[in-house]
# Entry
Amino acid sequence: MPLHGVLNADSGKGTINRNIYGHFSEHLGRCIYEGFWVGEDSPIPNTNGIRNDVVKALKQIRIPVLRWPGGCFADEYHWKDGIGPKEARKRMVNTHWGGVVENNHFGTHEFMELCRQLGCEPYINGNLGSGTVQEMSEWVEYLTFDGVSPMAELRAQNGRKEPWKVTYFGVGNENWGCGGNMRPEYYADEYRRYQTYVRNYGDNRIHRIACGPNSDDYNWMDVLMREAGRFMDSITLHYYTLPNDNWQDKGAATGFDESAWFATLRKALRMDELITRHRTIMDKYDPEGRVGLIVDEWGTWYNVEPGTNPGFLYQQNTMRDALVAGLTLNIFHKHNERVRMANIAQTVNVLQAVILTEGEKMILTPTYHVFDMYKVHQDAELLDLSLETGSYKLEDNEIPAVTATASRDAEGKIHLSFCNLQPHANTQVTIDIRGLAGNSLVVTGTTLTGDSIDAHNTFAQPEVVKPQPFEAFKLDGGKLTVDLPAKSVTTLKLAARG
# Structure
């Protein structure tokens, strides 16, 4: 059935914060080591120990912000173990992820160098779970103080005289679980205490981020906003998409059937409900909308690839993941008034990664290509788009057949992005464009699809799924008709002629 919609091109609905396109890197599996960091002596081309190919790929998608060092790892990470001469750094066992030895060769200086190469903002997550107030306070001082102090002197001894600029600082992570199994009342008090000593030095201004709820824990959000809302700049939300509700057998990343495809997309669409309900609680305590919502862990989570360390969370990435990424970004756009940042988990080799590496080889996943196609929405103005979503039915359930978003960039170009969630059905969508002279527009497009629902890239075949030019559209006056391929993500650009 053809779908219809209206784009009010002259009706803006606020800015889509570029940080919604943020990423997350944890000391987990091969995300840091082998993913970002290979060391200065590696035969793999690198700059100061950081892989050149990974940096180049992430700069292509304009990565705006990178979260580190965790995750659960953050609340057992002691930052002083990761500074100074590498041969003298403490070794530890990564008890959360795989039981492997962590040599701490990638620490504060290396992370800040990575952000410099990427041209992105650092988002550092402090240790509230097993660390001290003094330890967290001294980390901020080490990073940002420009003056005479023990931490500034220590930083200079380690080769960095000038302080760094650090805006985003998380005070704990998942403190309802791996970060201490705390009650919200207890964490609220601990947050208030710790954040007091996360100080602003010089002209550096810290954006203090509180640990928010897991998924639908609305009580946690209520208690934190009530007891600590005035002490925070943002609060987090974590939500992972599983095909089913069994954490011991989450489902396979490839080789799945349509029921698993459908269930995964249906679970991903739940993000809209979660944000809506958490926003309602935030509105009660913060009606002016000062506190931001940061979804700093999101993405798909499947069973690990057979034969890999189960603690490394390495999984393949298919067209199903591309659709999850696209529809989730559409949801974040919709809630742009509250959602100020999001960080997909995780950047390289872990969970819904945008990049996979194997020795000197690197491949881009379908999710990477969605971020590349959607980067045009970063810092753009969200436009009013109403769309008949249609219905994709399977057995006794149904979800929208199509989701979409639209924005206008700083140059006046309009971008429309569509996700066709139906695995076997093409869908025609007609958009009535209002507030623009339709005949004066030039339309170009790109689409991402695959031959099967689990189409994916491998090191032997790295370009099975990649964006292709898209021309299945017609502009007639103010009406734009688009024929969306099955299981596809499509972005159109509408620019003035000439």
Observations:
- The longest helix spans residues 270-285.
- The radius of gyration is 23 Å.
- The mean pLDDT is 97.
- The CA atoms of residues 452 and 462 lie 16 Å apart.
